[in-house]
Structure formats: structure tokens, C-alpha cells
Design goal:
Helix content is 45%, strand content 8%. The chain is built from 4 helices and 2 strands. Helix 2 packs across helix 3.
Length: 147
């Protein structure tokens, strides 16, 4: 028989029936998983492998690599926005080491400046054409001379 003092319920003495059994957790589901950030989700998605055709060969590579190849192809085909996006991305991407990062040569700077100038002129011409369409001549009304 057990003593009455062994069955006492109170502060720091829960009823025997509700106590955790040996080997069982008090939180079987565990801590809830944290939500991933947008950057983590994007990195997970773009790190997955995918297959695509390049010429006659089927290549299995990450979605990151496929995206870079697609933007590069568009830029080399004359898409100025794709070329600017690729240049911007390459300038912002950290290198493996500082030794690999080289200074832009004067020829590189000249090419980039030329590309930027062409894009500015294209946007200015596009903006001017839009402004001309929106500002059609309106007939000026003469004020009423009511005296």
C-alpha cells in the first residue's frame, strides 16, 4: 500500500494519472516550423535541378543556371534590357575572393557607357512619342465679354 503522503496533489505534485509517462515527451508535435523568408524560398526553388534542351543535347542543371543562360541569350540577341540586367547582376554579385574581382578596363567602360547612352536615347524617344500622342492640339476658347 502507498502512503497518503505519496498521493498528495498540490503545488509541484500533479495527479499521478496526468503525469508524463517515462519515455514520452510533453510536446509530441514539437516546436512549430518557422516560416521561410522570401529569399530562402526563392533560393530553394532556383537551386532545384531541371532539364532543358540546348542544341541537340539535353542538359540537367539548376534553375539558376538556366535563368542566367536565358537572360544571356536574350541580351546577346539584342535585348537591351536583358543585357543591362545581366550587367547589373554581375556587378552586384559577390565574388569568391577579391583576387578574382578585376577592375573594368577602359574598353569595358566605353562599351558600358555606349550601351547606357543608347538606352537613354531610346527611352527619351519613346517618352517624346508618348508625350506627342497625349498632347493633341485643342481649340482655344475665347472668353465671353459679358458687360
Amino acid at each position: 500500500m502507498t502512503n497518503k503522503s505519496d498521493r498528495t496533489v498540490g503545488y509541484k505534485r500533479p495527479p499521478v494519472a496526468t503525469q508524463f509517462k517515462p519515455g514520452h515527451s510533453g510536446n509530441p508535435s514539437g516546436r512549430p516550423k518557422q516560416n521561410k523568408s522570401l529569399i530562402d524560398e526563392l533560393d530553394d526553388e532556383l537551386s532545384e535541378l531541371t532539364c532543358f534542351r540546348e542544341g541537340d543535347a539535353e542538359i540537367e542543371t539548376s534553375k539558376w543556371r538556366k535563368l542566367v543562360k536565358t537572360v544571356y541569350r536574350a541580351g546577346s540577341d539584342g535585348n537591351v534590357r536583358a543585357a543591362l540586367a545581366l550587367i547589373s547582376l554581375s556587378l552586384k554579385t559577390p565574388r569568391d575572393s577579391d583576387k578574382q574581382a578585376e577592375q573594368a578596363t577602359p574598353a569595358d567602360v566605353e562599351i558600358i557607357d555606349d550601351l547606357i547612352d543608347r538606352e537613354i536615347r531610346r527611352r527619351a524617344e519613346s517618352s517624346k512619342a508618348t508625350d506627342d500622342q497625349q498632347s493633341k492640339p485643342t481649340s482655344e476658347k475665347e472668353p465671353n465679354d459679358a458687360k
